Amino acid sequence: MSGAGWFALGPVGVALAVSFAAALVSAVVGVFTVLRGQAFAGHALGDISGAGGAAALLFGIRPLAGFVAMALGGAAAMALAGGRRIAERDLASGVVLGAGLGLAALFLYLDATMSGVGGAASTVMFGSMFAIPPGMVLPAALCAAAALAAMAALARPLLLVAIGPDLAASRGVPVKLVGFAHLAVLALAVGLAAMSVGAVLATALLIGPASAGLRAARTLPGAVALAAAIGIGASWGGIALAYESYGWGGRHGWPVSFFVVALVVGAYVAAGLAARMRR
Amino acid sequence: MNGDALALEGVAVGHGGRAVLSGVGFSLAPGSFAGLIGPNGSGKTTLLRSILGLVKPLDGRVTIGGRGQVGYVPQSIALDRFMPVRARDVIALGLDGHRLGIPLPSRRRRAQVDEMIDAVGAAGFADRRVGDLSGGQQQRVMIAHALIRRPDVLLLDEPLASLDLRSTAEVVALLARLAREARVAVLMSAHDMNPLLPAMDRIVYVAEGRAVAGTVEEVVRGAVLSALYGAHIDVLRVHGRVLVVAAGGGPHDHDHDHAHGEDAMHVVRIP
Q1: What's the confidence (pLDDT) of residue B249?
Q2: Chain B partners of A152 at a C-beta cutoff of 8 Å?
Q3: pLDDT class for B83, splitting at 50, 70, 90?
Q4: DSSP of A174-190, one letter per residue?
């Protein structure tokens, strides 16, 4: 592999590339997730994907494949167990979340005891952006492209369903099928974000930027664009701050994920203030 | 059928195989404005959903005339503060919201949306977020959303439920005008017939699991409603309002309606 290809990137370059893909997809999918009242399902899928990430370390498969496969499995379980009402869906999410975290506990234990992977729990659950293998950049980009294409296709029916499920059904929208499709793309998004900021913090990239975009923007494209800008800005800003933090004394720099989440929260508060001033 | 926009014959609807409403038969000509009147829980929403094809009637036949298109304004719509859509976006979704993909901006699409905005008098708030609009303004937007594809029938489920008196009168007048001008048959449900009296040319009155249909003069009469309720009913006309009065512990529990205040009562019980 010669020249300026993906594989020539150093750790910082890899972190920038993967976090760009994760933040962009999380923001776009996140807007629809918040509109559908599925924030909890999104968080649960992120946590569950951690079991896949831990299993990937154990069996020596690609971490992205582990995160995404487990999240997709969780989404399928939620779809099977869930109902139409938000309370039923939350119940299904909660049950599946519990099961997923149980698996995560098992695989992380085995990581530590059998294969002696040091710091697996921290890496899987809270991310370790500078340790992402360069080989993950291309699969991450492909995942992101697939998720974005799916969201572009589903955008209008999803919005119509969010406004009124009956309204959408009366127009021939297959409400259930569209919901399953969204859940599958959501799994892809949190799997990607889990590899970037960690399984537990995937929710921060998914919900924070999207909520800020929804508060401040007047239109759906506006909300999506603002959410994407916040997500990417926070991710790259977080990487820059973490890189900077190596010079703050102490033997290590601060974790990237902390800075990313701090910036997302700041953007959310700012968006709320902006929305209030507009009114 | 003979040119009717909507015809129901012996329709029964219900949940889990049990009918809550049966023997419903009526027809609406294009351009007519009809009220589907009855207390909460009498099966009005289920009947509307069966006309839409969202639930199968347990019995009977629903026929839509013309091109077979039905527009719908459901009772509960989530147009809250978080919904990042302007009034004009909601109206545009009526045109192509069921399609996959992201639409390219087109002059024709915009012209169609603008035409509907003018038709429902929404020009003053077309670019505001729907969540910031009043209940009456939101109803105008939803009516435009439902009408933009030029349906043969427009169904509205309790569109007046959360409106103040002035918006109520405005929405009713708007619907009556649109029915005439767009030649669409409008059927709207309500638990109080009074706001509809100036405009309605047909009434479908639902009670006790059955329905009677006809003009207001034909249906809203003591003898007809007594037969429907199976109890003695008087119809009083006071100050241009109709009061349906059941003597001696009427057949209905109207606690739900009382919760909406006096305006919502269409049956008064005299102990």
Answers
A1: 52
A2: 101-102
A3: confident
A4: -HHHHHHHHHHHHHHHH
**Range from A238-252, B21-35, B131-145, B175-189 carrying the lowest mean pLDDT:** A238-252
Confidence label for B256 from pLDDT (cuts 50, 70 and 90): very low
The token duo for B138 is: 């939101």
Q: Which residue of B has its CA nearest to A150?
A: B101
Buried b (16+ CB within 10 A) or exposed e, A209-221: bbbbbbbbbbebe
Chain B residue whose CA is closest to A173: B98
Which residue in the block uniquely carries the two structure tokens 């296709």?
Answer: A153
Candidate from A153, A173, A218 with C-beta closest to B84:
A218
CB neighbours of A121 closer than 8 A, spacing ≥ 6? A54, A108, A111, A112
> What distance in Å separates the CA atoms of residue A175 and residue B144, rounded to the nearest whole number?
22
C-alpha to C-alpha distances, A189 to A44, A199, A202, A257, nearest whole angstrom: 13, 11, 9, 17
Instruction: State the pairing for strand pair B210-214/B202-207.
Output: antiparallel
Backbone angles phi, psi at B14, to 5 degrees: 180, -170
The Cα A160–Cα A179 span in angstroms is 12
Which residues make beta-bridge pairs with B21? B13
Neighbour count for residue A60 (Cβ, 10 Å): 8
Closest Cα of chain B to A159: distance in Å?
Answer: 8
Three-state DSSP state, A85:
coil
Q: CB pairs below 8 Å between A and B: how many?
A: 84
* Band (A71; pLDDT cuts 50, 70, 90): very high
pLDDT band at residue A112 under the 50/70/90 scheme: confident
Could you tell me if B90 and A223 are in contact, meaning their C-beta atoms sit under 8 angstroms apart? no
Task: Locate A15 and state its tokens.
Answer: 């972190």
Model pTM score = 0.87
